[in-house]
Specification:
The structure is a single chain. The protein is an alpha/beta fold. The chain has two domains: 22-259, Type I PLP-dependent aspartate aminotransferase-like (Major domain) (Aspartate Aminotransferase, domain 2, 3-Layer(aba) Sandwich); 262-363, Aspartate Aminotransferase, domain 1. It is built from ten helices and 14 strands. The protein has helices spanning 19-28, 47-64, 78-90, 104-114, 213-217, 229-234, 244-259, 262-282, 309-321, 346-362; strands at 8-9, 70-76, 96-101, 118-124, 148-151, 153-154, 159-160, 172-175, 192-196, 206-212, 289-290, 301-305, 324-325, 336-339. It has a seven-stranded mixed β-sheet, sandwiched between helices. Strands 11-12-14 form a three-stranded antiparallel β-sheet. Strands 1-13 form a two-stranded parallel sheet. Helix 2 (47-64) crosses helix 7 (244-259), helix 3 (78-90) packs across helix 4 (104-114) and helix 8 (262-282) runs parallel beside helix 10 (346-362). The longest helix is centred in the C-terminal third of the chain and has 21 residues, at 262-282. The protein is globular. The model has no long low-confidence stretch (mean pLDDT 97). The structure holds 4'-deoxy-4'-aminopyridoxal-5'-phosphate (PMP).
């Protein structure tokens, strides 16, 4: 394959980024216009970096209509560090946090929170292999809880909340790593939102945190500075040298999303893409079987099985031969997973569906 040929990248993350973003980044890599150096070579205290950090934050505010009483942070350590930072800051001694156990990443968040304080698993669908989301009736919330933690999209199993769970007055904390900015998000109904960048937002290692100021202010004092939300807020995401390239690239992605018409327009495209793929699964006469229950299906990560593991291996291999990459399911669950994040087009999904129809016909 010539090096300049891009594959169809259905990987779950790090994942495909929009080509116009990569092209602009490529140009900017030698010299940012008017600066004469790349973003990786300038001081994070310099005016050009400050401008692009603020522009990225302004674009997030515009995209997601972030209310003025929320702070936007771009930090390091990925989403996984937030598994620890959230309880370290916000789960006080004697308090309880409710966690909704809807998938493998939610389970990891629970394990980290338990190292810090008292956790109540408010609902779990583990017994169903996380193939569905809990119902409102299943949620057993703790009165006076410190916060309720949810995972808006379960990347490994391929399930996604269609609307937010009803948690009353409890502060809602959401890990939105794999569906952030795939559609509108009601920031005001959350106390804290975090998302690892490497799916819809940018390069790995950077995490976007949107937190309500008064909620962050309740955070514990005396924590190591880098693990404490307060100092990050006070220093405007520049407590130490931030992930400058990650912030730059996220800014480019936000600009691209705005150019696509914003989150409502992106959501329409994502719905059409997912429908095409799920329709192909459902129309295959049982050859392809969706993993997630239809009412819990994710628009981002489409998980399905073939009649045998051997056929799944063959499917992945033949897909790769046709430049359809990243289709192997997560190692913990097997099967096939097609991740169709914002930068995947309807045409890319059509290409995959064409391959699926051809494969099923040949190997039935
Ligand atoms: N939460 C979810 C929902 C994820 O999908 C992932 C990564 N796939 C993580 C957390 C962990 O992200 P990171 O690797 O950035 O720590």
């Amino acid at each position: 394959m010539p090096t300049a040929t891009r594959v169809f990248n259905f990987s779950a993350g790090p994942a495909v980024l929009p080509v116009p973003v990569l092209e602009e980044a490529q140009r900017d890599l030698i010299a940012l216009p008017g600066v004469g150096m790349s973003v990786m070579e300038i001081s994070h205290r310099s005016k050009p970096f400050e401008d692009l950090l603020h522009k990225a934050q302004d674009d997030i505010r515009a995209l997601a209509r972030v209310p003025a009483n929320y702070k936007i942070l771009m930090l390091q350590g990925g989403a996984s560090l937030q598994f620890s930072m959230v309880p370290m800051n916000l789960l006080g001694a004697g308090a309880t946090a409710d966690y909704i156990d809807s998938g493998s990443w939610a389970d990891k968040a629970i394990k980290e929170a338990r190292k810090v304080g008292k956790v109540n698993v408010a609902a779990t669908t583990k017994a169903d292999n996380y193939s569905r989301l809990p119902t409102t009736a299943e949620l057993k919330l703790t009165p006076g809880v410190a916060y309720v933690h949810m995972t808006s999209n379960n990347t490994i199993e391929g399930t996604e909340w269609k609307s937010l769970p009803q948690v009353g007055d409890a502060p809602l904390v959401s890990d939105t790593s794999s569906d952030m900015f795939s559609g509108p998000i009601d920031v005001a109904r959350h106390a804290l939102i975090y998302a690892g960048a490497q799916k819809n937002l940018g390069p790995s290692g950077t995490v976007l945190v949107i937190v309500r100021k008064d909620f962050a202010a309740t955070g514990k004092s005396g924590l190591p500075t880098m693990l404490s939300y307060g100092p990050h807020i006070e220093q405007g995401s520049r407590l130490n040298t931030p992930p400058t390239f990650g912030i730059y690239l996220m800014g480019q992605v936000f600009k691209w999303i705005l150019g696509q018409g914003g989150l409502a327009a992106i959501a329409k495209k994502n719905e059409a893409k997912a429908k095409l793929l799920y329709d192909a699964i459902d129309a295959s006469g049982g050859y392809y079987k969706g993993v997630a229950r239809p009412d819990s299906r994710s628009l981002m990560n489409v998980t399905f099985r073939l009649p045998s593991e051997d056929l799944e291996k063959q499917f992945v291999k033949e897909g790769e031969d046709k430049n359809l990459d990243g289709l192997k399911g997560h190692r913990s669950v097997g099967g096939i997973r097609a991740s169709i994040y914002n930068a995947i087009s309807l045409e890319d999904v059509q290409k995959l569906v064409g391959f699926m129809e051809e494969f099923a016909k040949k190997n039935r």
